[in-house]
Amino acid sequence: QVQLVESGGGLVQAGGSLRLSCVASGRISSRYSMAWFRQAPGKEREFVAAISWTDNSTYHANSVKGRFTISRDNTKNTMYLQMNVLKPEDTAVYYCAATTGSFTSWHYWGQGTQVTVSS
To answer: Which residues contact 70 (CB under 8 A, 6 or more apart)?
Structure first.
């Protein structure tokens, strides 16, 4: 099994920055692609960004492109999401996920960390 624990969420003013972390433990290796998703109140969970284990290629949703950056440190089994120029519409619970397969099937999920952006 793999356990994922997010941290770094909080309350920030619009235009501010936060850095989320996701620490993986258990039967984890660098051969996992990882991703961030978010879910705002009353809305479905949506993809934010992903990073491939094969070549560290990154993918960002259009809504966050240019503002958010996903990265990982395999020596620490940790993934990050640097979030800049935050907007009120970025308010959501942010979840990290991991998979050994394709980006269409995420096997493991964290419990989430709340990000609130005030206007």
So the answer is: 35, 36, 48, 49, 50, 51, 58, 60, 79, 80, 81
DSSP 8-state assignment for residue 21: E
Sign of CA dihedral 31, 100, 22, 51: positive
Q: Which long-range contacts (CB under 8 A, 24 or more apart) does 103-110 make?
A: 103/33, 103/35, 103/50, 103/59, 106/35, 107/2, 108/1, 108/2, 108/3, 108/4, 109/4, 110/4, 110/5, 110/6, 110/22
Do 48 and 97 meet the contact criterion of CB atoms below 8 Å apart? no
d(CA 18, CA 12): 8
| Per-residue model confidence as pLDDT tens digits over 1-60 | 889 999 999 999 999 999 999 999 987 766 889 999 999 999 999 999 999 988 889 999
For residues 12 and 116, the answer to whether their CB atoms sit within 8 Å is yes
Q: 90: helix, coil or strand?
A: helix
